[in-house]
Amino acid sequence: MKQGPLKNIRIVEIAGLGPTPFAAMALADMGAEVIRVQRPGNRHILGLEYDILNRGRSFVELNLKSESDRQKAAELINHADGLIEGMRPGVMERLGLGPQEFEASNPHLVYGRMTGWGQVGPLAQTAGHDINYIALSGALHAIGGADRPVPPLNLLGDFGGGGMYLAFGMVCALLEARNSGVGQVVDAAIVDGTAHLTSMIYSLHAEGFWQDRRQDNILDGAAPFYGVYECSDGKFLSVGAIEPQFYAELLSISGLPGQTLPAQLDKSGWTELRERLAKAFMGKSQTEWCAAFAGSDACVAPVLTLAEAPDHPHHKARGVFTTVDGVSQPAPAPRFSRTPGKITPASQSKAVAVSEVLAKWRKT
């Protein structure tokens, strides 16, 4: 089988943090040959010896403040199908490596730009982080307890609204360039992507089915049939029994059928219903409940820790996690029937020479 649907795609990655290397990892997982350009002697900001986000690709060391090294970077870019960078707007232009520099020398180049606020707009030149971008999109306001919003790690903004949209945008533009012969700039902004991810919630809100208050809606922890419950051992279960038939199964297995209960969608009875379910779930351990719900359609699953998740039988059967360089990590996703993704071994400690990369790329 061929390696990945993006085989023979060559990408130059200007080293960055968070969403940029995540996008590069996703492209490399799917078979693209990605070469990261990083500063000589650059160490990970957190001191990591092995960064999962840097897997599957080699790197070259170039000081982009040096004219000779900028020329080397430009030569790499001129032999690439795409470039991704996460600098503030204007930085690559000041380095002489902006997209307009390659319009004549590499007209099919797809130039991917990853920022929080986007290339244009009043906030384009200001600093920010995931929490700021998802706050401005409206998403953060909807997440958390009734008293205050709670940041959902940096999964929603950096990686969901940022890195994945950059990777998606790159693939879209690369496909179009194959047809037209002309590249373009991909302006991937975390605030844009996060807003796009909330499309369904905005739709529900527009129709009056979503209240602009936390813990007052079906999917935000207010509904007793869509939430998290503690078990007798202090561990938790996730419950997502929205549909009536799944809800009926939830009640049956949890031991509540036959009791007088509020109607499922009667919000005035949600507090009572939640208390009844909470009391029931406290009667057994997580392991006991998992056994009770095994094979059912009650939409109940254990809340696993990062250490527990890789060992779950479902993940083992599907190979959701893998081990590379002794580090357990998520495997490439999604899956392909004919050209599956693959993690290509590459050193994270030893740089390759630019001449070595160019010699290979010039031959293909």
Low-confidence stretches: none
Order of helices and strands: EHEEHEHEHHEHHEEHHHEHEEH
CATH level-two architecture of the largest domain: 3-Layer(aba) Sandwich
Q: Averaging pLDDT over every residue, what do you get?
A: 95
Described by strand count, sense and barrel closure, the largest sheet is: 6 strands, parallel
Strand fraction equals 5-15%
Strand arrangement across the biggest beta sheet: 3-2-1-4-5-6
CATH class of the largest domain: Alpha Beta
Shape: elongated
Total number of β-strand segments?
Answer: 11
Structural class label? alpha/beta
From the alpha carbons, calculate the radius of gyration and give it in angstroms. 24 Å
For the termini, the CA-CA separation is 20 Å
- Spell out the CATH superfamily of the largest domain: Crotonobetainyl-coa:carnitine coa-transferase, domain 1
- Supply the number of structural domains: 2
Helix fraction, binned, reads: 25-40%
- The third-level CATH topology of the largest domain is Rossmann fold
Number of helices: 12
List keywords for this structure.
formyl-coa transferase, domain 3, elongated, 3-stranded antiparallel sheet, alpha/beta, 364 residues, Rossmann fold
